[in-house]
Design a protein that fits this description.
With 322 residues, this protein is an alpha/beta fold. The chain folds into two domains: 229 residues, Zn peptidases (Aminopeptidase); 67 residues, Beta Barrel (OB fold (Dihydrolipoamide Acetyltransferase, E2P)), CATH 2.40.50. The protein is built from seven helices and 14 strands. It starts with 30 loop residues before the first strand and ends with a strand.
């Protein structure tokens, strides 16, 4: 939006009551792990890293309600930033992304082992051992304005390979994350090209839209299916159909535009994934300074509305030949 004002939203999704999952079976609130007793990977499905992104809670709640258990390996179902989630108010839905700081910007050993304290850091330290034990993670998210779902595959080739195996959604983004902190999907071994561990972050669409919840469920079942974790009939019932698996487009992010002032305005009402044909196209103004695309055929990846100095306004990307 050219004036960076947060618009009003229709909240079509209902936040599921997750209170029955608090005790879990791991000794960590809201974390449950099920071991098949048969050799195989440890796969984790992660929800509500951001407290107002209901689709992940809907997907993990669905897995619980269907009593999904792994045929091989271990399955962890995780509700992450529960403090923020419990503060969700559909009348003011943007306010519960986090309590003190973004849970998805603290994932380095230096920060987790450091002296800082916050609600999110305490929770990240609490769940850290489970994240470190997992071999493969699907972290389920949604977005404020971008209607096109995205798979965030991280900065290394193995992430793109896993996204291709999953096969949805259409757009796969390869990037190094944000200037203001490290995401959970980029934690240590997940972005080490020499480690077999891997993670994906799926942005299922616009916050609180009905179809966003539906894609979250399909993505979770598909992720488990590709690892042979669940019965094929279960995957067929709740996962994507062949028609849901598009020809994917892979986009590599060259870097973000980091806002330099307290007065950033877009030139157009960007929604995300627009391709701007010419280098030097003005996309906005940062104070009095025009902000221009750095190259031809530049993809506008996840433009933000809630823009603050020192944070990413948008990320620039190039389409890859996969």
């Amino acid at each position: 939006m050219s004036n960076s004002v947060i618009p009003e939203f229709d909240v079509e999704l209902t936040a599921p009551d997750i209170s029955s999952y608090k005790d879990g079976n791991t000794g960590i609130d809201y974390i449950s792990t099920y071991d098949s007793g048969i050799d195989g990977p440890h796969v984790m499905i992660s929800a509500i890293v951001h407290g107002n992104e209901l689709c992940g809670a809907i997907a993990v709640d669905h897995l619980h309600r269907q009593n999904v258990r792994p045929k091989r390996g271990k399955l962890t179902l995780a509700f992450m930033n529960v403090a923020a989630y419990h503060s969700f108010n559909p009348k003011d839905p943007t306010k519960s992304r986090f309590v003190d700081e973004d849970f998805n910007r603290v994932w380095t050993p230096e920060i987790l082992d450091g002296p800082r304290d916050s609600v999110e850091l305490r929770r990240a330290r609490e769940v850290r051992s489970v994240v470190e034990d997992a071999d493969f993670v699907l972290d389920i998210h949604s977005m404020l304005i971008s209607p096109a779902p995205l798979m965030m595959a991280g900065p290394v080739a193995k992430g793109r390979k896993l996204a291709k195996d999953v096969g949805l959604p259409k757009f796969v983004i390869s990037d190094a994350g944000h200037a203001n902190g490290t995401r959970m999907r980029d934690y240590v071994d997940f972005i080490n090209p020499n480690s077999p561990k891997n993670a994906l972050l799926v942005e299922c669409g616009t916050h609180w839209a009905r179809e966003t919840g539906e894609l979250a469920i399909k993505s979770a079942y598909r992720f488990l299916d590709i690892f042979g974790m669940i019965d094929p009939e279960l995957a067929k019932s709740y996962g994507p159909s062949e028609a849901d698996l598009p020809d994917q487009t892979f986009v590599e992010v060259s870097g973000p535009y980091t806002v330099q002032t307290d007065d950033f305005k877009y030139a157009e009402n960007y929604k995300g994934m627009e391709i701007l044909e010419k280098a030097g196209t003005i996309i906005g103004h940062d104070g009095d300074t025009p902000v221009e695309t750095p190259y031809d055929h530049c993809v506008m990846v996840m433009p933000s509305l809630n823009i603050k100095k020192g944070e990413s306004a948008v990320r620039y990307g190039r389409v890859l030949d996969m």
